[in-house]
Write a structure and sequence with these properties.
The complex is a heterodimer of chains A (about 400) and B (about 55). Chain A contains 13 helices and 22 strands. In chain B, about 0% of the residues lie in helices and about 15% in strands. Chain B is globular. Classes of the chains: A alpha/beta (about 400), B mainly beta (about 55). The interface between A and B is small, with 8 and 6 residues.
């Protein structure tokens, strides 16, 4: 990335990872960026670094603006290695004894990633640090999304450096919200669905704190993707809406299939839902990545899961997805299960128990069909779909 | 004495161990923790804990 002066004396010295397609199990169809920010005031501060293989490029980006040795201190908003991986290289270049500011949990967690004893300076929530003309303020954001996570706020410029919050895995020619427009929102939504959904309650609390403190934002700079400068309120409002987990009137059908019978069932269930005038989206787990399915879960009112019975159990892909979804703790969902089987037919019951454990409201014992659906079976699938469609319509 | 789990991050408060980093001596029951005690991992309040099943 060419270094960009995002505001007077403030530069994005981060890098673009154009080719990453699998980010610890999250599909990144557009690649991503690791943003890092250099603030040049009477003191010079670097906020966050980049993933380790990009360390040299970070140093090069910094060097175009200042001699890295002139950096007075580093701020680590988040310990995760896509932001801390560049620390060894950076500290080596700027001076190993320079202060490294982070949260209390940041100090604990960084020291479990890196053996070198850096000059950690754990900051208090709300604590400040003067850069000369400008002031940095630290805001703890524990579990958004790690215990060490914090935001750094540049008080005079009203710029928030929000770590992973408000981020998007997106690499493109655009650097700001006004350049990319609404097309960025699906990436922000996917990020929330896959990283932050389980911390919805904390997200809402944080938004309350921000309101109470009366913090205003001219610009929000996350560590991934574009910077929000035209309308930072837009992403804040979206976070509130996503955290509230108010589902739309949509049915999501997630399944895998062995000899196309469960797939056929999925199609007919979708037909039944449509007959009730309710939006439906079938997603085959062999073709759709779990992280894309999760994005659709977020605003679905009903999540219907289908699996053939394989060796007295559910399909591995379905198991993968259920495990993933369980961890992200979606709330307020209607659930149902279905599947074709040969002789024992355990899958439908296994899925039902899993969804019950996730506190889904189960509206049916589940639909099982032996081998290939016959005309009666097809009719049963359509009725099953209608029942789900009605529940979504009536349940609000 | 019961163990309590943080609903937010999964940390388990074990009364046998206490929370020495935050001056809670071993043998302190969850109910006897001060009201302002916080989860040592994520900062959640006591209300955010459930008894381990």
């Amino acid at each position: 990335m060419e270094q960009t002066e995002i505001a007077k004396g403030i530069y994005n010295v981060g890098v673009v990872d154009w080719n990453i397609r699998d980010f610890h199990g999250y599909s990144t169809h557009n690649g991503t960026t690791y943003n890092a920010f250099l603030i040049v005031d009477e003191k010079i501060a670097l906020i966050d670094t980049v993933k380790k293989p990009f360390s040299d490029q970070l140093i090069e980006n910094i060097s175009r603006i200042v001699d890295p040795k002139k950096i007075d201190f580093v701020i680590s908003n988040h310990t995760e290695m896509d932001h801390s991986g560049g620390l060894p290289r950076v500290m080596h270049r700027i001076g190993e004894d320079k202060p490294l500011y982070c949260s209390k949990m940041g100090e604990k967690n960084l020291s479990k990633h890196f053996s070198r004893k850096w000059n950690y300076q754990a900051v208090e929530n709300g604590g400040t640090l003067s850069l000369g003309k400008r002031t940095l303020q630290f805001l703890e954001t524990r579990m958004l999304h790690w215990p060490d996570s914090m935001f750094t706020y540049l008080v005079e410029d009203k710029i928030l450096f929000s770590s992973d919050g408000f981020g998007q895995h997106y690499a493109g020619p655009e650097k700001f919200d006004d350049q990319v427009g609404d097309a960025i929102m699906i990436h922000a939504k996917k990020y929330f669905a896959n990283i932050l959904l389980l911390y919805s309650a904390q997200t809402l609390k944080l938004m309350e704190t921000v309101n109470k403190l009366g913090l205003e934002f001219n610009m929000i700079c996350p560590d991934h993707g574009i910077i929000w400068r035209k309308d930072p309120k837009k992403i804040i409002d979206a976070y509130v809406e996503w955290s509230e987990q108010k589902s739309g009137k949509k049915v999501l059908i997630v399944y895998d299939t062995m000899w196309h019978s469960t797939e056929q069932m999925a199609g007919k269930i979708a037909e039944g839902v449509s007959l009730e005038g309710v939006e439906v989206r079938p997603m085959n787990l062999r073709h759709c990545h779990r992280s894309d399915v999760m994005t659709e879960v977020m605003d679905a009112r009903a999540v219907v899961i289908g699996s053939p019975t394989l060796n007295n159990n559910i399909y591995p892909t379905v198991s993968d997805f259920l495990t993933y979804m369980k961890g992200l703790k979606p709330k307020g969902k209607i659930g149902a299960s279905f599947g074709s089987y040969g002789w024992s037919g355990e899958a439908v019951g296994v899925i039902k128990s899993e969804l019950e454990a996730m506190k889904f409201e189960m509206i049916d014992p589940g639909l099982k069909i032996q081998y290939v659906p016959d005309p009666e079976g097809i009719e049963a699938c359509i009725e099953f779909g209608r029942k789900i469609g009605k529940a979504v319509k009536e349940g609000g | 004495m019961d163990r309590y789990v943080c609903n937010i991050c999964g940390y388990v408060y074990d009364p046998i161990e206490g929370d020495p980093d935050n001056e809670i001596v071993p043998g302190t029951a969850f109910d006897d923790l001060p009201d302002n005690w916080e989860c040592p991992v994520c900062g959640a309040s006591k209300d955010d804990f459930s008894k381990e099943e």
